[in-house]
Every structure is written in C-alpha cells, then in structure tokens.
Amino acid sequence: MFKKSVLKTEKNTKKVMLSDRRFNLKSAQEFIYFANSRGIIRENTNKMTKYIFEYKEYVIIGEYYKKIKKGKFEKDNYIFSKFKSLETMNRRAIDTFKPILAMSYKKNENKYEGWIFYHYRDTEICKENQYCDILNIVNNIHSKGYFIKNLDAKKFNFDGKKVYAGNIVLSKNYFGKIGAIYNYIQLKNSSFVFEKLYDFKSNIIYILIDFILKMLNISKDVPEISKNYFQDSREELNKISSKLKR
Questions:
Q1: Which domain holds residue 92?
Q2: For residues 91 and 89, what is the distance between their CA atoms, to the nearest angstrom?
Q3: What is the pLDDT along the chain (246 residues), one digit of tens a residue?
Q4: Which one of 93, 119, 145 terminates a domain?
Q5: CA 242, CA 129: separation in Å to the nearest integer?
Q6: Residues 25 and 62 both lie in one domain
Q7: How many degrees, rounded to 5, is the angle at CA 87 between CA 81 and CA 93?
Q8: Are residue 196 and residue 159 in the same domain, yes or no?
Q9: Do 58 and 148 reside in the same domain of the chain?
C-alpha cells in the first residue's frame, strides 16, 4: 500500500506518494536530478516527457507531466490516478510495472505538474497474435470490479515472455456489464481485429451501445479482414479465436 506524504518548499506544496519502501522522500529529488542530467529521453510530447536513467543498481523510468488538468468531479489528477492504478494492479496480482513514487504540485488553480517513477522493463507493443492475452487481462480487471479509462491496445506491452498491462488508468466500474462492454468497444476501435475475437458481438447490449457510439462518432465500423492480414500465417486468426475460447 502506498504512503502519502507532503514536501513543503518555498513556492509550492508538493504531495508525494511512495510505493517501493526501498526508497524515501529524498529519492524524489534525486530521481528528478538524475532524469534531467543523465536520463535518456524515450518520448516527448506537449504533455509528457519520458526518461530512462540509472540510479544506483536500478534502471528507472521517469515520466514528467506538464500542466495536467484535473476534472471537476475527479478525486485525483492524472499523475496520482495513474500511480494509484499501478499500485492497485500490483496489489491485485495484475502484472504491470512496479511503481516507486509519484510527486505532484499545483501549477495554478486547475493545472498540475509532477512526476511518476517506476521500474524499467524491456518491452515492445503487442502484436495481433497477442490480442487474446490482452483480452484475458481486460477480463481479469473487469472481474475485480474495475473499468479502464481510454482503453487502447497500445497500452499493453510484451516483454518477450508474457503480455502485461502498461500505461492504463483504472476506475471503479459502477456500471457493471455496460462499463465492460464500453471497454470492449474501445478495444475494437483501437484495432478492428478484436471484434473478430469477440464471442459476444451478437449480444443486444453490445450492438446497442456500439450503435449509439457510432451515432456520436465515438465508435466506427469494422472492415472485413483478408486471410492475408496476419503476417505470421493465414491461419493466425483461427488460432487466436480457438485459444480465446478455451
């Protein structure tokens, strides 16, 4: 379980969440120094910069978030929501990154800046022949009473041996089956291959929600997949479908 603490500076009050007890509040400032001075930038957008750096015997990923907005009805900003999601998944035996600490402070009335640090894993984005494993993880998360915000296949990773949850944020699923189906539609929209794997696509609730989302331009139609779509083999789709139904 994470520990929440406060660091007071001259300009800001910085809230820190600590998960890995091998580190402490002082580590937060050291991580920032190592990321900025020795880190290698792995990703850089207008909202987030991702660094990889070595700290003692550890290899660490640091994500610096710039001017993140907090919704009016949200308990936490995105930084703490993502960190809590990593902590929850580790606690509920859902394989993902191992969180270390997160730090956030207000930039102005409704915008935040801050960092998330977690242990590095050598990974790659999942390929189509690993989509059934993604579905198994999503089903596991649903079974524990959670919904995945902005679900996308690219938010799952493969480390050479197994698929695991990556850059995802959880929330309590107060809508039950409807929330789960909404997640499945999000997956289908990230890659139309998923709907070819669904054994519930004829379910009236799935059809109705998908129809409504299409009317709102949130969902999209699924094109036909040619037998040559998969590079591995012509039979890959059948292999995935049969594995999913076991």
A1: 3-119
A2: 5
A3: 545 444 444 345 568 899 999 999 889 999 999 999 999 999 999 999 999 999 999 999 999 998 887 766 567 788 999 999 999 999 999 999 999 999 998 777 778 899 999 999 999 989 988 999 999 999 999 999 999 999 999 999 999 999 999 989 999 999 999 999 999 999 999 988 898 888 888 899 999 999 988 888 777 665 554 444 444 434 554 554 454 444
A4: 119
A5: 12
A6: yes
A7: 130
A8: yes
A9: no
